[in-house]
UniProtKB/TrEMBL annotation:
Record PROSITE patterns: SHSP (PS01031)
Domain SHSP: 35-147
Pfam family membership, one: HSP20
Signal peptide region: none
Domain of life, source organism: Bacteria
Name used for this protein in its record: Hsp20/alpha crystallin family protein
UniProt cross-references to CDD domains, sorted A to Z: ACD_sHsps-like (cd06464)
Length: 147
């Protein structure tokens, strides 16, 4: 005698149509649908040095012209938008997908920021934004002698 273990279900939902649940499970777990349901926001590293703050944003596949950086009062907003449309006139497509990437990230800036010293650079898929500090905010390091 062989024992076969079936999954425990509190409600017998397969009684009407055994294919309904498997269809919706496959449809909702399809990569086409799940990729569009997940919002993609790039990962960010924020570091502080003696003279500046550094924001590193991982955004591979973009170009410098895709980024837009705005500073308004004590808020810095980094956004990007990229559209790709490819079409070939001699082919008949039964399915064609457009690639569209956009995101917006905002960060509040402290009072110690020097707004005249903000620079951005895009290298190897990482946007590096350097925000300088005011002179009075830079702490001078010195050795204190113990008496």
């Amino acid at each position: 005698m062989a024992l076969i273990k079936f999954p425990n279900r509190t409600i017998n939902s397969d009684a009407v149509n055994p294919y309904v649940n498997s269809f919706f499970d496959n449809f909702l777990s399809d990569s086409f649908i799940s990729d569009r349901l997940i919002t993609r926001v790039p990962a960010v590293n924020i570091a502080e040095t003696d003279k500046s703050f550094k924001i590193e944003l991982a955004a591979p596949g973009l170009q410098k012209s895709d980024f837009k950086i705005n500073v308004d009062k004590n808020m810095i907003t980094i956004s990007a938008e990229k559209k790709e449309e490819t079409s070939e006139g001699d082919k008949l497509y039964s399915k064609k997908e457009f690639s569209y990437t956009s995101f917006t990230r905002s960060f509040s800036l402290p009072d110690s920021v020097n707004y005249n010293e903000i620079e951005a650079e895009y290298i190897h898929g990482v946007l590096q934004v350097t925000v300088g500090k005011k002179e009075d905010a830079i702490v001078a390091k010195r050795l204190i002698e113990v008496k």
